[in-house]
């Protein structure tokens, strides 16, 4: 395979970023945003976003460079996506946060 995107054994920022963006899109669709409802289907995007973050972390290099800085920014984006997906997953189960 000539492209690293399709080869799981090779590092690929394109694949990692694509998985994270697809996960956040799936999470919004599965949760019924803006009317969030409980759904265990959100476990699928949760696992995928952690996989995408791991793929991004694999692309880090030992010496600092602008590439390393760009990968760090992508890791921060991944952490924000993790927080959003976990919020969509856990918020409907937090009954004490809702009005009665």
From TrEMBL:
<protein>
    <submittedName>
        <fullName>Permease</fullName>
    </submittedName>
</protein>
<feature type="transmembrane region" description="Helical">
    <location>
        <begin position="12"/>
        <end position="30"/>
    </location>
</feature>
<feature type="transmembrane region" description="Helical">
    <location>
        <begin position="36"/>
        <end position="54"/>
    </location>
</feature>
<feature type="transmembrane region" description="Helical">
    <location>
        <begin position="66"/>
        <end position="91"/>
    </location>
</feature>
<keyword id="KW-0812">Transmembrane</keyword>
<keyword id="KW-0472">Membrane</keyword>
<keyword id="KW-1133">Transmembrane helix</keyword>
């Amino acid at each position: 395979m000539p492209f690293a995107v399709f080869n799981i054994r090779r590092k690929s920022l394109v694949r990692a970023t694509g998985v994270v963006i697809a996960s956040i899109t799936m999470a919004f669709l599965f949760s019924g945003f803006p009317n969030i409802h409980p759904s265990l289907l959100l476990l699928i995007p949760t696992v995928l976003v952690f996989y995408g973050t791991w793929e991004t972390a694999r692309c880090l290099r030992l010496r600092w460079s602008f590439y390393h800085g760009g990968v760090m920014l992508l890791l921060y984006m991944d952490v924000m996506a993790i927080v959003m997906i976990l919020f969509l997953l856990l918020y409907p189960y937090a009954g004490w946060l809702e009005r009665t």
